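Researcher: Here's a chain I'd like modeled. Treat it as a single chain, no partners, no ligands.
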Amino acid sequence: MGQGDWCWCNKCQGLFYGGNDTRGKCPADNNEHSRAGSYNYTLQIMG
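Model: Modeled as a single isolated chain. C-alpha coordinates:
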Protein backbone atom coordinates (compact mmCIF):
# COMPACT_ATOMS: atom_id res chain seq x y z
CA MET A 1 0.00 0.00 0.00
CA GLY A 2 1.31 3.45 -0.80
CA GLN A 3 0.58 6.98 -1.90
CA GLY A 4 1.14 7.83 -5.56
CA ASP A 5 1.64 11.12 -7.39
CA TRP A 6 5.10 11.90 -5.98
CA CYS A 7 7.55 13.49 -8.41
CA TRP A 8 11.26 14.30 -8.46
CA CYS A 9 12.27 17.94 -9.01
CA ASN A 10 15.31 18.24 -11.28
CA LYS A 11 16.09 21.70 -9.86
CA CYS A 12 16.34 20.95 -6.11
CA GLN A 13 16.77 17.14 -6.41
CA GLY A 14 13.91 16.59 -3.94
CA LEU A 15 10.56 14.85 -4.00
CA PHE A 16 7.31 16.79 -4.01
CA TYR A 17 3.67 15.76 -4.06
CA GLY A 18 2.41 16.20 -7.60
CA GLY A 19 -1.25 15.33 -6.96
CA ASN A 20 -2.29 18.95 -6.31
CA ASP A 21 -3.11 21.71 -8.78
CA THR A 22 0.07 23.52 -7.73
CA ARG A 23 3.50 21.92 -7.33
CA GLY A 24 4.72 23.83 -4.30
CA LYS A 25 7.65 26.20 -4.08
CA CYS A 26 11.10 24.91 -5.06
CA PRO A 27 13.91 26.15 -2.79
CA ALA A 28 16.33 26.20 -5.74
CA ASP A 29 14.73 29.17 -7.50
CA ASN A 30 11.61 30.09 -5.48
CA ASN A 31 9.33 29.04 -8.37
CA GLU A 32 7.26 25.84 -8.70
CA HIS A 33 8.98 22.45 -8.62
CA SER A 34 9.71 20.95 -12.04
CA ARG A 35 8.32 17.57 -13.21
CA ALA A 36 10.65 17.51 -16.23
CA GLY A 37 12.25 14.07 -16.53
CA SER A 38 10.37 12.67 -13.53
CA TYR A 39 8.36 9.50 -13.20
CA ASN A 40 5.29 9.18 -11.00
CA TYR A 41 6.57 7.60 -7.80
CA THR A 42 4.60 5.79 -5.10
CA LEU A 43 5.82 6.10 -1.52
CA GLN A 44 5.21 3.19 0.79
CA ILE A 45 3.18 4.01 3.90
CA MET A 46 4.74 2.61 7.04
CA GLY A 47 2.51 2.11 10.00
